[in-house]
Design a protein that fits this description.
The chain has a single domain, classed as Collagenase (Catalytic Domain) (3-Layer(aba) Sandwich), CATH 3.40.390.10. It contains four helices and nine strands, in the order E-E-E-E-H-E-E-E-E-E-H-H-H. The strands form two sheets. Strands 1, 4, 5, 6, 7, 8 and 9 form a seven-stranded mixed β-sheet that branches. Strands 2-3 form a two-stranded antiparallel ribbon. Helix 1 links the parallel strand 4 and strand 5. Bound molecules: zinc ion (ZN). Zinc ion binds next to strand 1 and helix 3.
Length: about 210
């Protein structure tokens, strides 16, 4: 009885992906209020609201039951003297979760994982998926993290945790960085990135946003 299905549209838009291969086209011009890092946009101007203290749910069939809590730990407890206001607690009640973790398997795809964010229709129309451009226009209510088991299986334990951390950060409104100069950032878009934990420029965005 704890499953409160959320009504949503059936179409799906890739908000962002951690991809192995080719560079995706960079969109949009940068709004004045957006954070940047080495010349690249680092965030969307809107956010998950409320997003500071949220539940997360690992849905049945998702086998990354240790990597996900490890990633959450990496988010809440960044290295060194960094801190941020993010708090997440595990729940089995869908209606109490704002960060949902699902698994799928697509071996023909380079996509390791992606995130979809959902807005609530204020006129009672339920929840619906937002595309990336809308993340500069409207706050969203919750995020779904989708892990491609076919690709996740190939990664080390560290890379799995880092991938999940990266995706969660998309759920909070961070964007992919694609310039090689940003390879050390947790928001670098490719699995060749070198970050193993939260990085400073990204943590600063969380502190500023939330
Ligand atoms: Zn990404």
């Amino acid at each position: 009885m704890d499953e409160m299905p959320r009504r949503k549209t059936s179409w799906r838009i890739l908000v962002s992906t951690l991809v192995v291969g080719t560079l995706l086209a960079t969109l949009h011009t940068t709004p004045a209020t957006a954070a940047t890092f080495n010349g690249e946009r680092l965030d969307f101007t809107k956010k998950m609201s409320p997003g500071t203290n949220i539940g997360y749910k690992i849905f049945p069939g998702n086998e990354y039951t240790s990597s996900i809590p490890a990633a959450i730990n990496s988010l809440m407890y960044p290295p060194g003297s960094m801190s941020n206001p993010m708090v997440l607690w595990q729940t089995t009640v869908t209606a109490n979760s704002q960060m949902d973790f699902y698994q799928y398997s697509k071996s023909a795809s380079d996509i390791v994982a992606y995130v979809e964010v959902f807005r609530k229709d204020d006129n009672g129309g339920g929840y619906y998926s937002m595309g990336a451009p809308a993340m500069d226009a409207f706050n969203w209510r919750y995020a779904e993290v989708w892990l491609n088991d076919a690709r996740m299986d190939e990664l080390s334990t560290t890379k799995r945790r880092v991938t999940i951390l990266h995706e969660m950060l998309h759920g909070y409104g961070l964007r992919d960085l694609k310039l090689a100069v940003n390879k050390a950032s947790i928001m670098y878009a490719y699995t060749s990135g070198t970050a193993t934990a939260m990085t400073a420029e990204t943590n600063t965005v969380l502190v500023t946003k939330y």
